[in-house]
Amino acid sequence: MIKFDIHKQFTSHGKTVDIKLNATCDEGKIIAVYGKSGVGKSSLLRMLSGLTTPDRGVIAVGEEVWYNSSAKKNIKTNKRNIGFLFQDYSLFPNMSVMKNILYGVDGEPDQVLIDRIIAIGDLKELLYRKPESLSGGQQQRVALARAIVRKPKLLLLDEPLSALDAEMRIKLQKEILAINSIIKTTILFVSHDLPEVFKLADEVLVIEDGVFTKRGTPSEIFSTDKVDVMGEVISMDENEQSKSLRILVDGKIIGVNIPK
Amino acid sequence: MIDWTPFLITLKLAFITTSILFVISIPISYWLAYSKIKLKFVFEAMVSLPLVLPPSVLGFYLLVAFSGDSPLGQFLSNNFDLSLPFTFAGLVVGSIIYSLPFMVQPMQAGFQNLPIALKEASYTLGKSRLQTLIKVLLPNIKASLLTGVVLSFAHTIGEFGVVLMIGGNLDETRVASIAIYDSVNKLDYSTAHTYSLVLLLFSFSILAVVYLFNKKGFRAVK
To answer: Do the interacting molecules here have an ipTM over 0.90?
Structure first.
C-alpha cells in the first residue's frame, strides 16, 4: 500500500501552482497520472522519489514512512528503494549497457531475473556497447531494465515513452507489462497520452492545477466525462444527454462521451 | 655546465602542488557547482581572486600571514614546528593558493555541464553522493579534470612573483623562473637563454600532449 498526502508550491511556466495531492494506491497496480503539462505530474514523481522535498505532508510505502514533515522525517532518495525512469533515459555514458543495468544492484545479483529482463528487453546484443551508440528506444529499454533489476518497491515512470516513435512506444508498453508481471511492483507513471494510459494503467488519477480531480479505471474516466484530448475528431453523435466523440490520437481511436 | 637543480625544484613543486590541488579541488568545485546558498558568489570570487591579483600582492600578504609575528605563523610554529617563509613548504602553500582557480574552475564547469539527471538517476539507483561522485560524475568529466591538472601544473612551472616573495632566491627555493631572473641580473644571458628555452619547450610539450589527448577521446559529456 502506498499512501501520500503532499503539499508543495512551485512555479511552472511563469505560473504558481499549489500542489495538494493525496491518494492511496494498492500494491502491484499500475497507476497513470494523467494531465496537461505544468499541472504537477512530474513534481509528484519527484517528491515521491525524494528528488524534490514537499513543503509538508506524508509519504508512506508499506510499513515504511519515507517522508513526514511533522516528524521531520525525510528518507534520502538513495534509501527509498525506488526505480525511476526519466524521459531522457539518463544512462551513464562512461559505462557499458551491462554496467548500467547492474549499477543499482547491491550484493549478489539475481542472475535469473537479470537474464529474464535482458531477454524481455531484447538487450543481449547490446550488453557491451556504450549508451552513445544506441538509439533512443534502445536507451530507454536499458534504462527500464536498470530501474527494475533492483526490484524497487515503487517504480516511477516520468513520461517514459514520449520521446519515442509509435512503433517503439508500443514495444516498450508491452515490455513494461511483461516486466511487471515478473516483479509485481507498484508503478506510477506520468502521461498525457491516452492510448498509453488505456494500454498500461489499472487506474488513472487525473490531475488538474495541482490536485487530483478524478480517479477510476481508464474506461470509467475517459468514457463518462469531459477530458481534453489532443487529437482529431473523426465523428460525433449527439443525443439529449451527451455528445459522443470518436477521436484519433496517435493512430488509435478513442471514444469520449461528454455529458450535456 | 648548466645547473639543473632549479628545474628539479620546479618540477617537484609543480608535481606536489598539482597533486594536492587535485584532491582539495574536487570537493570545492563540487560544492561550487551544486550549492544553492545565496552567498556562493563570495566564495567563487575568493577562489578566483588569484586570477586578477598581482602575484606580488598575493605573495606579500602570504609572506605577512606566514611570518613568525602573525597569529598563523605562530600557530604553525608552536604546534607543528613549521616555518613557511623562505622554505620549500612555503612555496607549496603559496603555489596551491595561487593556482587554485586553474584547477577549480575547469572542474566546476565540468560538473555544471553534466546533465543533472545523471546525478539524480544515480541516487534513484541507491547510490550515495560519494558513490555517485566517484562512479558517475568524475569519470564523465575526464576532459575537465585533465584540463585542470595541466593548467595547474603549467601555471606552477611559470610562477614568479609569488615564489619570489615567499621563497626568495635561496638554494632550496630557487625555481627555474627565478634562476632565469637571477642569470639576467648577473648578465649571464647564455644560461638565461638555456633555462628559458627548456621552459618554453617543456610548456609547449605539455599543452601539445593535452590537446592530443582531448582530440583522442577525453571528451566531456554534452
So the answer is: no
